[in-house]
Structures are given as C-alpha cells and as structure tokens.
Amino acid sequence: MKRIAVDMDEVVADVLPKFLTLFEQFNGRRPSEEEHLGKKLYQLPGGENLRQALFEKGFFADLQLIPGAQAGIQTLMDQGYEIFFVTAAQEFRNSFEDKYDWLLRHFPSISWKNFVFCGDKSIILTDYLIDDHAFNLRTFSGKGLLFTAPHNISETEFTRVNNWAEVLAFFEQENLANGAR
Amino acid sequence: MKRIAVDMDEVVADVLPKFLTLFEQFNGRRPSEEEHLGKKLYQLPGGENLRQALFEKGFFADLQLIPGAQAGIQTLMDQGYEIFFVTAAQEFRNSFEDKYDWLLRHFPSISWKNFVFCGDKSIILTDYLIDDHAFNLRTFSGKGLLFTAPHNISETEFTRVNNWAEVLAFFEQENLANGAR
Q1: Neighbour-count burial of A122, counting CB atoms closer than 10 A to its CB (0-12 exposed, 13-18 middle, 19+ buried)
Q2: Computed from CA positions of residues A25, A26, A30, A33, in that sequence, does the dihedral angle turn out positive or negative?
Q3: Which of A22, A114, B54, B180 has the least C-beta neighbours within 10 A?
Q4: Does residue B181 surpass a pLDDT of 70?
Q5: Amino acid B180: pLDDT
Q6: Which contiguous run of DSSP H or E holds residue A22?
Q7: The pTM is what?
Q8: Looking at the annotation, which residues of B are catalytic?
C-alpha cells in the first residue's frame, strides 16, 4: 500500500486567517495579498510579534479546515493510499495536545498510529509528501508535492498543487501510471 | 552522517521500576523476575489495571534514566552519529509534554528537531533503530538493535544489546567495518 505523508498547517489546517486577524489586531489593518506573497506574515514590517502566537496554548486548537481537505483525504484512502499526518510540531511544546485533538476531531477515520510530530521531516519514509515548505520537500526521499500558500508562490522546484482538487488530479495520474489499483 | 533512531521507554527511560511499584500498590507484593520474563507487567494476573497509568499526566515526567544512556548517546554523537529520539507516544495524549520536557532535561545537547512522536515506526527513515520491541524492528528499513528488557528476553530475531555498553561495542564494530570515521 502506497503511503502519503500530509503536512498539517496550510495543507489541511488553515493558519493564514488567524495570522491575518492577529496582524490586524497589532497594526489596525490587514496586509494586502501582494504584501505577503513570497513571505510569511511574520516577516512583514509590523508582523514581528505574530510568530509568538504559535507558542501559546490554543493557537492550533480551532484552526479551520483547508477547503477540500477532508473529502480529498477520504478519496485518497478510498483509492487505497495510507495517509500519515506529519507535522513539524516540535518547536511548539504547547501545540501537541491541540494538534492531536484537532486531527481526531476532523479526521476520525485516521488512527493516532498515523500521526507524526517531528522536527526534521527528512526522517520520514513514505512514498509521497504534500507540504507547503520547499525545505521539507528538498530533503524528502520520496515524491514531494508543494501545496500552494502565499509564502511559497515563487518556488518552482517542485510539482505544485494549488488546492485539494489538484492533489486528487495528481493522484489520478499516478493511479493511471501505476496501472489499475 | 549516519543516523540512529533511539526509542525512549526501556532504552533511555526506565519505565519498569514505576510499573513494579504500581504492581505492588495494587497487589501487595512485587512480582518475581521469573514471573514477568517474556511479558509486560500488565499482562500478569493482577496487572490488568497497570496500563491505565500510561494515560495519566505525569507518568512519563519523572522516569529514571537507563544506566549508561546519557554517556552512551554522547559517545555516539562524538563519533559523528546523528541521534533521533523516536517514541511511540501517540497512543498517550497526556504523555507529549512530559516526554518532551524529559528529553530536554536529560539530553540538552539534542535539539527538539530530533524528537519524533509517532505511532507506527515503520515510517522512520534512519540507518539504525535501537528499540525494545521486536515489532518495531520488524518493519524498520534500516539495521535494528533489540535493547534487552524482561518482556523481550525470548526474542531471537534481531541483534541484541543488553545495555548501553553493548550498544557502544556494536557501533565500535560498525565504525571499524565502515572504515575510519
């Protein structure tokens, strides 16, 4: 059975709206999309304090789902793929329980056996990795897919998927290439 | 740089004394070593309730170190190995913060980037895995070492290391086989 590692933040869990709200609280305005293309919001002038929020209990507890993520994961499972959620949680001690509960709540059909909290994703052995960070794909031993987020918009090194419909389209091609599943 | 994944419980963190104390609290006596050779304590008559303790906050917070673990890990790092702690924490939501703090306290020279909390260790890509469970070694893609614990005493399938001195002796041989490091 082929295995797919799926990143959490900005692939299934939508961090950006929360950061936009925080930016507005600090600065009295929302940044335009042009301002933060190619960057993380905390790299903008006025965004210096945003990253601190990641260390607080509760930050990851109530993130919205990325559109299409639940149905997309279910479709891949129906096609016979095994899904692992692989998140670089280890910088954020206070995120563990929030992330765990979030996964159980939104993806009840995936066992805790398939949750991985790590720091360096180069240690992950799966056939595919879907991630919004090029640096994770660069050290990955399998086939990497770059899930579009504003910060990675100028990356050209990896197969890009703009949304979950494009993830499924990619795997339709893989299924054809690998013969009938 | 070669990478070694090191399990926590019964390899660097000593769970057994705590279970023996709990068994005594429940049953008014300690089990003899013969009683629990080849078994987990919670598989003994009278041990049925022990496993529940793993789900409680604090269980993993104050475990003693396995003798030689700190010095052994340091020696392997000095020899040029990269160490990852890989623990099957995911069954136990309440263990995450305890295990994280325990690692930071006892192994301050190893970054959180090298801590992995997972369920199924077959997802781990390293050159070596030191673990007390044969089922983890069985699905591992690299070279597995079985670290002796009473429960695994009759396993014969893997290279056995009885203590940290034997871990270091094993890697001395590896170093020789791989040429001067």
Answers
A1: middle
A2: negative
A3: B180
A4: no
A5: 52
A6: helix A16-27
A7: 0.95
A8: 7, 9
pLDDT at residue number A178: 86
Domain check: are B173 and B123 in the same one? yes
B-chain residue closest to A116, CA distance:
B118
Residues A10 and A37 in one domain: no
| A100–B90 C-beta distance less than 8 A | yes
Token readout for B90 is 């995911």
Which two three-digit tokens encode residue B43?
A: 């598989």
User: Measured between alpha carbons, how far is A69 from A165 in angstroms, rounded to an integer?
Assistant: 9
> Are A23 and A95 in a shared domain?
no
For A2, nearest residue in chain B (alpha carbons):
B123
Tell me the per-residue pLDDT of A110-136, one tens digit each, with 9 for 90 and over. 999 999 999 999 999 999 999 999 999
Q: What distance in Å separates the CA atoms of residue A64 and residue A102, rounded to the nearest whole number?
A: 10
Count up the domains in chain B and report the number.
2
Q: Same domain, yes or no, for A80 and A150?
A: yes
Q: Residue A180 pLDDT more than 60?
A: no
**Which residues between 91 and 120 in chain A have a beta carbon less than 8 angstroms from any beta carbon of chain B?**
91, 93, 96-97, 100-101, 111-120
Do A50 and A115 belong to one domain?
no
Q: What is the span of the domain harbouring residue A22?
A: 16-55
Percent of chain B with pLDDT over 90: 90
By annotation, the residues of A acting in catalysis are 7, 9
Q: Cβ contact (<8 Å) for B111 and A119? A: yes
| B32 close contact with A: CB closer than 8 A | no
For chains A and B, count residue pairs whose Cβ atoms are closer than 8 Å.
81
Residue with tokens 């959180």: B112
Residue B123 contacts A, CB cutoff 8 Å: yes
Angle at A120 between CA A62 and CA B119, to 5 degrees: 65
Q: Is B61 on the interface with A (CB under 8 A)?
A: no
Residues A81 and A159 in one domain: yes
Element (H, E) at A73: helix A69-78
Nearest Cα residue in chain A from B101: A93
Tell me: do B28 and B113 sit in the same domain.
no
Q: What is the ipTM of this complex?
A: 0.94
